[in-house]
Amino acid sequence: MNYRFFLPVEIIFGKDKIKELSQQIKNTPVLIVSDPVLKEIGLVDRVKESVGLPGDVFDFCQVEPNPSCATVNKGTQYAKEINAKTIIGLGGGSSIDAAKAISCLVETNDTLQDHLFEGKTFEKRTSLLIAIPTTAGTGSEVTNVGVYTDQDREQKKPLVTEFFWPDHSFLDPTLTYSMPAKVTASTSLDAFTHAIEAYWADSSQPLSKLLSMEAMKLIIENLEEAVKKPQDYQVRENLLYASLLAGISFAQTRTTILHALSFPLTNEYGLEHGFACALALPELILENYVFFKEPMDALTKYLDLESVEHFSQKMLQIMKNVQAPTTLSELGIKKAEVEKLADTTLTAPIARLNPKKYSKNELIIFLNKIH
Prior knowledge:
49% of the residues lie in helices and 11% in strands.
């Protein structure tokens, strides 16, 4: 047994833990990176109050879903103008990813594109980076990965660096109460795919498998209930904990072909990231089984399911119950577009970590099964 497990993030988890935020702020000014909705509903102001230094706390609340390079560059310029020493990412994965990039770019004269496409690398980060998720799904608070969209190139691309690990991550389930049902469903399915892909990836290892198993069990048991009862604290806590476990797990392993497929589904068809990741999940559970039989049997037993077929059907039913799309045709994707979808999916290196290694023709056949 040989593996490496690395997590240099302090995790502060629990009800109202956001009130302890001020204990971690050592240097000001502070910049909160978030989105317009969280600003509007008051969560940004709630975090400002927790920081406790109103004169030295600023906000940049312009982050959009699938954060663009242009927005990150704009946020970086603002961070330079206020001489930010602490960067707080507040929100879903988009805001936290934007904060990661800003915290590194603020010390350079670079653009985000320089690092995504021109081969530049970060050499340091001296600003404090704090992540505060308000969704239970992306796991960005415990990973060294950010995902960004360059609108000019029409490309969505991940960036990995040791400097993207947050210094502190605050996970307060009360902050997830504001999630609408659709966001709850999408982000939870994102977490589920993190967990199962970390479980079956070629790069998987024993600790990741254990974390992933518990994350999947919690999501299966709590997702539908969270959609029905959004103010149920215990359910919200369970989902946030599951997201955390899944995030820690895939930070060690990376994801596989489900996430590779999500890139074109989001970029070209506008599907929410979590729904895009999960769309092919029920069918892929069946196809991967032949190449990963013993571990999948162990997983289905842990999840109290009778067989891999039962597992596939269970996930399909949950997805339908939370109104997640389960076919390509629901997105308006025509049969003639499937070949291009396969081509784009296979360009992502993570596609090769999947147990079943798909050729282009095999992937086209697979995608037609879920059309």
